[in-house]
Predict the 3D structure of the following.
Amino acid sequence: MSNLIKGETGEWEVVIGLEIHAQVVSNAKLFSGAATAFGAEPNTQVSFVDAGFPGMLPVINRFCVEQAIKTGLGIEGKVNETSVFDRKNYFYADLPQGYQISQYQQPIVSGGTVQLDMKDGSTRKIGVTRLHLEQDAGKSLHDQHPSQSYIDLNRSGVALMEIVSEPEMRSAEEAGAYIKKLRSILRYLGTCDGNMEEGSLRCDCNVSVRKPGAAFGTRTETKNVNSVRYVMQAIEYEARRQIEVIEGGGEIKQETRLFDPNKGTTRPMRSKEHAHDYRYFPDPDLLPLELDPKWIADLKNGLPELPDARKARYVADYKLTPYDAGVLVAEQETAQFYETVAKGRDPKLAANWVTTELFGALNRTGKAIQDSPVTARALGGLIDLISDGTISGRIAKEVFEAMVETGKEAAAIVEEKGLRQVSDTGAIEKAIDEVMAKNQDKVAEYRAGKDKLLGFFVGQTMKATGGKANPAMLNDLLKKKLAG
Ligand code: ADP
Ligand code: MG
């Protein structure tokens, strides 16, 4: 599959690098004890440090550091035993300190990898350049008053991990897969809840285009895109816009842009600022961050099994396709559900039921798997009834629908509705005889060589048994009887 985009002057390659801001799961902020809960009344979770009062001193939150270390290890990065906090100076109304405490030349994590799982089952590794810790800013509210802006400092000082990728993605699909995998890893680690609607995960999309093999083109950076779909839309739009500009004889300006979710377009926000604009210098209020190697080693030993490892295990032990395995491990809750269903059962059958019927039902009812109307144990019970021949796979779908609606166990529904599969030779033969008696002309045609009519007889007999005949037995008996 080619990722190239056709333009007037031939094919273009898109080059993408993502900067992800992931809010650290922590009850307190990066340098203060103020709370971080989402949705609190404005300005109720603000300490003097977060409000930038003179003379206040930041104190590093050990737990936030631990979360960053775990994330660095989870993406196979190098955790640096020494890192430095810098002041990134800029003026903005919702930044009361007049600077953001961030990390610049010595981040807490260098390097790393995120493996993309593509739809066709292939995988590709994307390099992570760095992960650093920094403070979030406050929030300006422009829609509360006709002529004034309000400021909410609840978010001011909340710990963020900025995770910067290498410019190694080549399509919107790859960018989407990158965010999904990174989010999955963060959630497995419990270091960021990955909730993009609430702003816990935000993405800056750096995009440029070039002719294949040429040097990188000038990039634009579309800021704070907050859903996977929007990221993909913004990249598609930006790539096509840039191609048009260049082919029209223009030049791409290095600038910061904004995504408009209603139109699916991007527009200029400001010309790109450079590192020197920020006058970075080490924060004199904070010592370099020195990590005990034993602490790092202990955290490494305590890491949970992560999505890639779990996926590999599913492929090896359960013989699932890489694609199905990837789908099942993406969320821990789904993986846990699946493992409960698969235990002691045919793992492929279990995977099919989870990824098709169950996912379908959850989609229709808008429920998360944690609130599934059919529990893992109940779904396992249904699969057992298929495996032991009590019901056919076809009837099982009907039973499943009833389970979704009523929350009852499969066995109870089968009894109630009399859906037990008929495996009694006499009963099936009787149905066949009736169908043949009613369709003597077709029996004659079949015997004269029109084999295709077998399907007709299977259908009619199945109908006569209310869909309950054991399909394999029905086929055998029907062929014998039709042969005469
Ligand atoms: P800054 O901090 O000014 O935004 P960086 O050098 O840290 O600049 O790069 C930011 C992001 O831009 C990284 O994710 C990087 O991969 C990406 N990037 C750099 N050059 C290009 C390019 N030519 N096209 C697309 N993305 C790029
Ligand atoms: Mg940037």
Remarks:
- The mean pLDDT is 94.
- Residues 305-417 form one domain.
- Residues 228-247 form the longest helix (20 residues).
